[in-house]
Structures are given as structure tokens and as C-alpha cells.
Design goal:
- This protein is α+β, with helices and mostly antiparallel strands and 362 residues long.
- It folds into two domains: 198 residues, Extracellular Endonuclease, Chain A (3-Layer(aba) Sandwich); 72 residues.
- Helix content is 26%, strand content 18%.
- It has nine helices and 14 strands.
- Strands 1-8-7-6-3-2 form a six-stranded antiparallel sheet, with helices on one face.
- The longest helix is centred in the first third of the chain and has 41 residues.
- The protein is elongated.
- Keywords: Signal.
Length: 362
């Protein structure tokens, strides 16, 4: 019986030992599992993450347009021909004085003084009239003359315009004319004050301006092309009358083959002496006329000076401040409102600002 108890006790002990071993194994396994789990949480398994490189926007090539698709460049302000207008760079003092016979003087070998920009931009018609100067005188005008600028009707009346120097020249009986800087037949401009100047018939018609205006008009009408054209007045300092004009012309589309000129036209009149400062004129005396005037005792004395009055009555032009003998043709042409008579001597009249007429008093 004791033996049986011993066996039972031993069996129980062994059984308990086995449970403990199993329990410890289980606990050890659980602990290991916890450690593995903790390790897994603390040190996650590294996985290779692919490197993402920045992507660039796809480049699309702009197709080159064909010649028919090339867009026209917009015309900028600088491309307008009016932006290149200017007076020529020329010293008028280099022009010889009028000698009584020549009406024109060729400048720069007859080649216009236009700039490259002015020539390049003249393919379309335009016209420009520079403002009057501080004394109210015309300065210059420039145009690319085309058929679209030319008038379609006859010129109107321009008698209401009185350019500087008009009235004093009118009182000189030379018959001044209102001269268009750019001729009416080229521009259609009628009575624009910045396009009119006081001039002689010789300047306006017989001496040259009309000649070159006709040349330009004929070319434009016959070809449909343009002519770059500029006329500049030659006013010296404070003179009231221009001494002349510089005329320039160059056909555009054929690079000057059809028309090209650069000439100075004198504002003069054969047989007349003009005072450009005060815009007056006196007709020159001929040898035959000088002999006639001697009959009136108005010649010079032996010393070459004008004689004293000696009771003689002189005719005065109060506008031109000239002294005439009664028989002088110039005296007979003085307007009534500018005419006066005086018995003072020449010296006394000169002291009042008068001067002797070259026709009758030398």
C-alpha cells in the first residue's frame, strides 16, 4: 500500500513537473513571440523604395510656319514715315549770291540729302508741313508724293493767306506771289499757311519751282510710283523774305532712276534789287533810263554824292523808306497811301531813315 502511495506520489510529482515544463515552454515561447513582435515593431523590415525622379513637362516643338503662314510683324510707331521727317542738314550760306541772271544752283551734285531711313520708309504716301517758326515764317515741307495725294479738283482761292513779307513786297510793286512749298498739283493742299511763302514770279514759275513740280507730277501720273519730295525755305536770321528754296526729289520704287534732283531756286527777279531783311524790291535802272532821269537834275554831282535839294521836291515811299525823283518810274507806281512829298535835302531825309532809289538817284 505504501508502495502504491509512493508510486502515486511519484506519478503526481512527475505529472506536475511535466506541466511546469510545458507551462514554462509555453511561457518561453510566448516571451520569445513577444520579443520578436517587439523587435518587429521597433525595427520594421526595410523594404526598397524606388527613387522617384522629378518628371519634366513634355517638350512640344512649335512647327516652323511655312512662308505663307509667317505672321506679319506689326507696324510700330517707328516705322511710320512721318517719324523720319526733318529738314536737310545743309548750310545755305554755301550757296552763291544771286548774280542777276542765274535762277538755279545745283547742290550736292544733284543728289538729294535724304537719310536712309527717309528713303526706306517712303513706299507709302504721306505729307508733312513743319510748323511756322517764332516769327510766323514757313520752314519746310516733306512728302512721299503718290497719286492718292494729288487733287481731283481745281485749286481754290488763296487770297486770304498773307505769308510773312507779303504786304511789304506788295507795296514795292514787284507783284509778289503766294508760292506753295509743295505744289498744289502734288499735294492738293490749297490754303494751308504752313505751305505758303512770299516769292517772286521767277521763283514760283519761270525760274524753277514749277519745272520740278511738273517733273514729279508727270512721273507719278505715268508710273503710279512715289517720289520722296522736300522743299526747304532759306530764311537768314531775322529776314522777312526767303532768299530761295532748296528742292529735293527722288523716285522711290526705282531708287532714283526716274526722278532725282537737288537744286536751290533763287527767290529773285531779274531786273530787280530785293532787300530780304524788310522784304522790299526796287527795279534796277538801265543805262537808257539813267540818261532820261538826268533831265530831271537828279543825277550825282562830280564827287559822286547825291545833291542837296536846292528847292527840289522829292517823292517818298513811306513803306520802303525810299527817296525818288518825280520822274522816276518807281515813284509813279507808289500806292497813294504810301506816297509823300518832301523838299528836305537828301542828307536830311537820310537822317530820318530814308535811302535813295538806285534807279533815279544812284
Amino acid at each position: 500500500m505504501k508502495k502504491s502511495k509512493a508510486i502515486l506520489v511519484l506519478s503526481a510529482v512527475l505529472l506536475m513537473a511535466g506541466c511546469i515544463s510545458v507551462t514554462e515552454g509555453t511561457e518561453n515561447n510566448s516571451e520569445n513571440a513577444k520579443q520578436v513582435s517587439a523587435s518587429a515593431e521597433k525595427e520594421p523590415t526595410a523594404t526598397a523604395t524606388p527613387t522617384v525622379e522629378p518628371t519634366e513637362a513634355p517638350v512640344t516643338e512649335t512647327p516652323t510656319p511655312s512662308p505663307t503662314e509667317v505672321p506679319a510683324e506689326p507696324t510700330t510707331v517707328a516705322e511710320r514715315p512721318e517719324d523720319y521727317v526733318s529738314a536737310p542738314e545743309y548750310e545755305f550760306t554755301s550757296v552763291p549770291d544771286y548774280n542777276g541772271s542765274i535762277t538755279q544752283y545745283v547742290v550736292n551734285n544733284n543728289v538729294p540729302l535724304f537719310t536712309e531711313d527717309q528713303i526706306r520708309s517712303a513706299g507709302q504716301s504721306f505729307e508733312y508741313y513743319a510748323p511756322l517758326d517764332r516769327l510766323g515764317k514757313t520752314t519746310y515741307a516733306m512728302a512721299s508724293v503718290g497719286q492718292d495725294l494729288m487733287p481731283t479738283e481745281k485749286r481754290g482761292d488763296i487770297s486770304s493767306v498773307h505769308p510773312v513779307g507779303w504786304w511789304s513786297m506788295k507795296n514795292s510793286d514787284i507783284g509778289p506771289e503766294r508760292c506753295h512749298i509743295i505744289g498744289y498739283q502734288l499735294s492738293g493742299e490749297n490754303d494751308r499757311d504752313t505751305n505758303l511763302m512770299t516769292g517772286t514770279h521767277q521763283l514760283n514759275v519761270t525760274g524753277g519751282m514749277l519745272e520740278y513740280e511738273n517733273k514729279v507730277a508727270d512721273y507719278v501720273h505715268s508710273t503710279g510710283n512715289h517720289v520722296l519730295y522736300r522743299v526747304t525755305c532759306d530764311f537768314r536770321e531775322n529776314e522777312d523774305l526767303a532768299r530761295g528754296v532748296l528742292m529735293e526729289g527722288r523716285s522711290v520704287e526705282d531708287n532714283g532712276a526716274g526722278v532725282q534732283f537737288c537744286v536751290y531756286i533763287y527767290n529773285a527777279q531779274e531786273g530787280w534789287t530785293i532787300d530780304y531783311l524788310i522784304a522790299t524790291a526796287e527795279r534796277d535802272i538801265t543805262p537808257e533810263e539813267q540818261g532820261q532821269y538826268m533831265e530831271y537834275g537828279a543825277g550825282q554831282d562830280e564827287a559822286g554824292t547825291a545833291p542837296a535839294s536846292n528847292g527840289m521836291t522829292y517823292v517818298l515811299n513811306t513803306s520802303t523808306r525810299k527817296i525818288h525823283t518825280p520822274g522816276c518810274p518807281s515813284a509813279r507806281q507808289i500806292a497813294d497811301h504810301n506816297r509823300a512829298e518832301s523838299t528836305l535835302s537828301i542828307a536830311e531825309l537820310e537822317g530820318q531813315g530814308y535811302s535813295t532809289c538806285k534807279r533815279c538817284l544812284g
